[in-house]
Design brief:
Blueprint: E1 11-14, E2 18-19, H1 25-39, E3 45-50, H2 56-68, E4 74-79, E5 94-97, H3 103-113, E6 119-123, H4 126-134, E7 139-143, H5 154-158, E8 162-165, H6 170-175, H7 178-183, E9 184-187, E10 213-216, H8 227-243, E11 251-254, H9 257-263, E12 275-278, H10 282-290, E13 294-297, H11 301-310, E14 314-316, H12 324-333, E15 339-340, H13 363-378, H14 384-398, H15 411-415, H16 419-434
Parallel strand pairs: 3-4, 3-6, 4-5, 6-7, 7-8, 8-9, 10-11, 10-13, 11-12, 13-14, 14-15
Antiparallel strand pairs: 1-2, 1-5
């Protein structure tokens, strides 16, 4: 479905060694097989993967890995690009970085690894699922966007199982598709049930140092625009959010390593305003949400469900890809949205005339429209008025936030929580049923 244009690197992170460059794919696979043969551990052996599109798939995979690790005899990750920002050992026994490898090289590697794994589990990388199937691996798919796809790829219908995260329209779509009904497991959102002490609460007047504002820029890296465009988006949002803050209020930015590096220094200093730019794991992001005055976030489904888990009041930022505006619109239509901005509000328009979920939609055309607005706001002289307008809209939209919990909190009442555990159990149950007895 999607291919990420990334710089060539070959990375293998191992339990016993770290080698930045190895002689070849066959050697990598042989070394991995030797390590696995030495463990002799019981339990299914799973090879995980995530689509390099935004942070939703790799974040979900990292959460699944933590849940799967104590249930598996072997757990490894096979993936590329910024997905590696969130995959670590432990919980993995091995992380196989495939950045820059061709389809043929990855296929050869998967063929050598196939005898050692019971199941290849991908978070929405349907192309890699097809490759793994060709390599002889059994394939399972975790999909957070069942509600969205114009056409669900055939490999999902053949997956064992197809694990769909619940959202508006998911159960109805599966019920209408005989191929998916046969092998689907619908799970609640991949978010934990947080204890009361970790839920967001209003800031108390005179309670000491003001809380930070969280700017969560997950989901910016995708194959439809250049890294420089993602960085330009991030800079626009950071400048607007900073401009909206009173003295003494800090801004914490969490994003991928690539975007964080591109942001560099967080702009011209303002007295009394501190800004930090960082890359965090899922648990840390949840803590940042719970402790924030409020959040400004890209409207990816992972961010939406994290806002639901913590209850943080949230301004949903302008779209960075084809699903964002649809998800923010669904939240607003169903009463789960505190505040939202989109490109038509600040000098667009972005072309939303054809629904992104329509078979005739062109995600690249939509991205080009978004990029055109970003470049108008970022680069040309004489557009400072539009940048000021963006900052003004952020200030107006966030003026009432922070007094009561966010409306997204009610999503957990509708769709539940704890999907990580249910997905892990389904995967282990299937993989275990196919393993020969020892």
């Amino acid at each position: 479905m999607f291919s990420l244009r990334v710089a060539i690197s070959r990375i293998v992170r191992r339990d016993r060694a770290h080698r930045s460059v190895l002689p070849g794919v066959a050697d990598m696979a042989d070394d991995a097989a030797d390590d696995m043969a030495d463990t002799g551990a019981a339990g299914p052996r799973l090879l995980l993967n995530a689509q390099p599109f935004g942070f939703g798939p790799p974040a979900a995979t990292a959460a699944l890995a933590r849940e799967l690790a104590p249930l598996c005899g072997e757990l490894a990750y096979f993936g590329a690009g910024h997905t590696l920002d969130l995959q670590h050992r432990p919980p993995y026994h091995a992380v196989y970085g495939t950045t820059g490898l061709s389809d043929g090289e990855r296929l050869a590697w998967l063929r050598r690894l196939a005898p050692w794994y019971d199941l290849f589990v991908t978070a929405m990388d349907f192309d890699e699922a097809v490759l793994a199937r060709r390599a002889g691996l059994e394939v399972a798919v975790y999909d957070a966007l069942t509600w969205f796809w114009p056409e669900i790829p055939a490999v999902a219908g053949d997956a064992a199982p197809y694990v769909a995260q619940d959202f508006f329209g998911v159960r109805e779509r599966i019920a209408a598709d005989p191929a998916l009904r046969r092998n689907s497991v619908v799970v609640p959102p991949i978010v934990p049930l947080l204890p009361p002490r970790r839920l967001w609460r209003p800031e108390r007047p005179g309670g000491g140092r003001p809380r930070h504002v969280l700017l969560n820029l997950g989901g910016l890296q995708n194959p439809y625009w250049e890294p420089s465009d993602a960085a330009a988006y991030a800079r626009l949002m950071l400048d607007a959010v900073r401009a909206a803050q009173p003295a003494g209020r800090s801004v914490v930015v969490t994003t991928s390593r690539g975007v964080a590096a591109a942001l560099g220094a967080p702009g011209a200093p303002r007295p009394g305003l501190h800004t930090s730019v960082r890359t965090d794991d899922r648990d840390t992001v949840l803590e940042l949400m719970s402790g924030a005055a409020y959040a400004c976030m890209t409207p990816g489904l992972g961010n939406i469900y994290d806002a639901a888990a913590t209850g943080v009041p949230t301004l949903w930022l302008p779209s960075a890809n084809e699903t964002h505006h649809l998800q923010a619109r669904l939240l607003a239509e169903h009463g789960f949205c505190d505040a939202r901005l989109d490109w038509p509000d600040v000098g667009g328009p972005a072309d939303y005339g054809v629904p992104a979920s329509s078979p005739t939609a062109d995600p690249e055309a939509l991205t080009r429209a978004i990029v055109a607005v970003i470049r108008r706001l970022s680069g040309a002289r004489g557009l400072s008025a539009l940048r000021d307008r963006l900052a003004d809209e952020v200030a107006k939209s966030t003026a009432g936030l922070g007094l009561v919990p966010g409306r997204a909190r009610a999503l957990t009442e509708r769709f539940g929580h704890g999907g990580t555990e249910e997905a892990a159990k389904a995967l282990v149950r299937w993989a275990g049923s196919r393993r020969p007895p020892h």
